[in-house]
Write a structure and sequence with these properties.
The structure is a single chain. This protein is of the alpha/beta class and 391 residues long. Helices cover 35% and strands 26% of the residues. The protein has an eight-stranded mixed β-sheet. A hairpin with a 3-residue loop joins strand 1 (44-49) and strand 2. The radius of gyration is 24 Å and the shape is elongated. The structure holds zinc ion (2 copies). The site of one zinc ion has 4 residues, from loops. One zinc ion (ZN) binds next to loops.
Length: 391
């Protein structure tokens, strides 16, 4: 196979997937397409994990007695309208691959193609095609369907493209690399009434405003300065009217951090601050706190393999083994909690309209020129993690 053949195949796969975007847990066309392509490459495909998810397995050499690793790509698109007039633009109005998961899937197909054709490893590779990354639900759904019991893996790896980084740069780090995301909702109940009679009411709007301000002290005054955390209030909803003080206020928000201990601290302080302020004013509140995404924490052994593979793939100046952590969140964190893992960023380009447009924007595009880099990285990673005897 020549490099030209691989590049052509990768573009064909990516463009077909891009034309057929599907949101979380509805990736049926995508799942059928991936299964057909992977079976055509000779892999054993198991479907129906986490709904539309699938695992394709490739064995070489001594097979199941040797090691096993997972390469994971995400499958879902976003409910966004695609701008621009690419020849392979979305055929579904209002749904778009605006996070580059089409490129991630194409790179995993490319890795299957190269590894099935060229081998060069001893062990088992499970290609994990995961639904519903965007809402942070697909990894858990696959695990609930027995992902790690049915497909034993010593390690798991994944790639996300990164607009704003030079095209083809591979970056990662050992330890926390992407944040958790938790959501909170504080429902404050007071007593509504006439806007002219404050003595008759318990104004939940004033109480809510005080809570919003006081929550800004949580990161500043409770989280150790050596730990990163963000606490943002994002919604403030009342049932008041022009001349009526509301009876209820709902404050919603979002937190990010890199460790379960900080997640617990944020939750505890949000409850204490809200309940204390409500008690001071004669109001009451209910606080709910939900975990949306686990932090992604790279294992040192998996990271060492990924960095070694990156150095085999691109020149040293395109490898960053100690990238600054991102405050964004990724469902890969759930997989990396179950088995040692490493999540790697692949630069998508840093020029506007040449890979540099932001993820989740309606003019985002995956940079086809980095597809082959991702495939070569995966192939080098498999051969590094699962070396042939004597290699
Ligand atoms: Zn995304
Ligand atoms: Zn994404």
């Amino acid at each position: 196979m020549t490099a030209g053949d691989l590049g052509t195949r990768l573009r064909r796969w990516r463009h077909a997937l891009h034309e057929h975007p599907e949101t979380a847990f509805t990736e049926r066309w995508t799942s059928d397409y991936l299964a057909a392509e992977l079976e055509a490459l000779g892999l054993v495909v198991t479907r129906g994990l986490g709904g539309t998810g699938l695992v394709a397995t490739l064995r070489r050499g001594s097979g199941s007695s040797a090691g096993a690793i997972g390469l994971r790509a995400d499958m879902d698109a976003l409910p966004l309208h695609e701008r621009g007039d690419l020849p392979y633009r979305s055929r579904t109005d209002g749904v778009m691959h605006a996070c580059g998961h089409d490129g991630h899937m194409a790179m995993v197909l490319g890795a299957a193609h190269v590894l099935a054709g060229e081998g060069g490893f001893d062990g088992t590779v499970h290609l994990v095609l995961q639904p519903a990354e965007e809402p942070g639900r697909g990894a858990d759904a696959m695990i609930a369907d027995g992902l790690f019991e049915r497909f034993g893996m010593d390690m798991v790896f994944g790639i996300h493209n990164t607009p704003g980084h030079p095209a083809g740069r591979l970056s990662t780090r050992s330890g926390p690399v992407m944040a958790s995301e938790d959501n909170f909702e504080i429902r404050v109940t007071g007593r509504g009434g006439h806007a002219s009679q404050p003595q008759m009411v318990v104004d939940p709007l004033v109480v809510g405003a005080e809570i919003v301000l006081a929550l800004q002290t949580v990161v500043a005054r409770a989280v150790p300065p050596s730990e990163a955390a963000v606490l943002s209030c994002t919604e403030f909803v009342t049932d008041g009217a022009r001349n009526a003080i509301p009876g209820h206020v709902v404050v919603r928000g979002d937190t990010r951090s890199f460790s379960p201990a900080v997640q617990d601290l944020l939750e505890r302080r949000i409850r204490e601050v809200s309940q204390g302020i409500c008690a001071a004013h004669g109001a009451t509140c209910e606080v709910t706190y939900t975990h949306e995404f686990a932090p992604t924490v790279n294992h040192p052994d998996a990271t060492a393999l990924a960095v070694a593979a990156a150095r085999l793939t691109v020149p040293d100046d395109l490898v960053d083994a100690d990238v600054a952590p991102f405050m964004g969140s990724e469902d890969f964190g759930v997989l990396g909690r179950a088995v040692p893992g490493c999540f790697v960023f692949l630069g998508n380009g840093d020029e506007p309209d040449a890979g540099g447009n932001p993820l989740h924007s309606s003019d985002y595009t995956f940079n086809d020129d980095v597809l082959e880099t991702g495939v070569r990285f995966y192939a080098n990673l498999v051969r590094t993690a699962l070396p042939e005897a004597g290699a």
